[in-house]
Design a protein that fits this description.
binds NADP nicotinamide-adenine-dinucleotide phosphate, about 270 residues, Rossmann fold
């Protein structure tokens, strides 16, 4: 792999073999970064994402690792150090917990513990000006202000909010390294597998979101992730994508707003 890491931004997107992570990887590639496309098991899909980036004139490579396994994260960090010497942007996108074979503790292990482990393991590779972006959903981010989360999604939403809180607690450490941290939170994103599944299993949950306004697309969401991954504002700000009613609900309970509320709305 020949990467001119003196001029190219090196970006790792976790869980980039499909969905939002894949689109964010493609957009980072189009913006001139070298993109490391992380996947857990779908190597071929990850390679398709890399090929798309390269065919469009960009630069990318795959890197397989189950991010919930600390040993695999250690190996991933070592491989990035060896291949590139640094990492400019870490996008914490991979998420889960609804998998059929997932044990009851998996959601918290992946959505909180693994995110903290990734951030702390990769922090030594991030130079001054580096960026960490945590990707989440409004249902998780606003779980304390708007509680109409579909029953089956509650463990995921709770664990993702716990992940966000644990990462926010690390902001002083990120700051001492000169590394910025932002959160990108989105409404249900049209066209994703999870929304297509919900449309079959719990159609009213998707209908109620559509009734609140048009759902953002994968491209819309990815665009904001890319902006967050390079933006100058990076001290715990949250970038919101869609779902104005969530912002209104949080506004209504302003006394209990998260400290980062409404800095950026997209
Ligand atoms: N979908 C929505 O409506 C929506 C709305 C707001 C926010 N978000 C957030 O956006 C992010 C992406 O969502 P999505 O819907 O695009 O997800 P998705 O389609 O379910 O894709 C998940 C990706 O994460 C990877 N992954 C899963 N577990 C992993 C692990 N343990 N280690 C490494 N990679 C792992 C998968 O890789 P393999 O394919 O190799 O298993 C896949 O590439 C999530 O953080 C989600 O909370 C989604």
């Amino acid at each position: 792999m020949i990467v001119d890491s003196t001029v190219q931004r090196v970006v790792l997107v976790t869980g980039a073999s499909r969905g939002i992570g894949a689109e964010a990887a493609v957009q980072f590639g189009a913006a001139g970064a070298h993109v490391i496309v992380n996947f857990r098991e779908k190597r071929k899909r990850a390679q398709v994402v890399v090929d798309r980036i390269i065919d469009a004139g960009g630069s990318a490579s795959t890197l397989g690792a189950d991010v919930s396994d600390p040993e695999q994260v250690t190996e991933m960090a070592a491989e990035i150090r060896q291949a590139f010497g640094r990492l400019d942007t870490l996008v914490l996108n991979a998420s889960g917990g609804l998998e059929r074979d997932a044990d009851p503790g998996y959601a918290l292990r992946l959505n909180r513990d693994a995110q903290v482990n990734l951030a702390t393991s990769l922090l030594p590779l991030l130079p001054v000006g580096g960026r960490i972006v945590f990707v989440t959903s409004h249902q998780a981010h606003f779980i304390h202000e708007k509680t109409d989360v579909p029953q089956g999604y509650i463990p995921i939403a709770t664990s993702k909010r716990a992940g966000e809180d644990a990462l926010r607690a690390l902001i002083p450490e990120f700051r001492t390294h000169g590394v910025g941290f932002t959160v990108v939170s989105g409404d249900m994103i049209d066209g994703t597998i999870i929304v297509r599944l919900l449309e079959r299993r719990d159609p009213s949950s998707v209908e109620s979101r559509r009734a609140a306004g048009p759902l953002p697309t994968v491209e819309d969401f990815a665009r904001v992730i890319v902006r967050a991954g390079t933006n100058a504002a990076a001290d715990g700000e949250t970038f919101y994508v869609g779902g104005n009613d969530y912002l209104a609900a949080a506004e209504a309970s302003r006394w209990s707003l998260p400290p980062d509320f409404a800095r950026h709305q997209h």
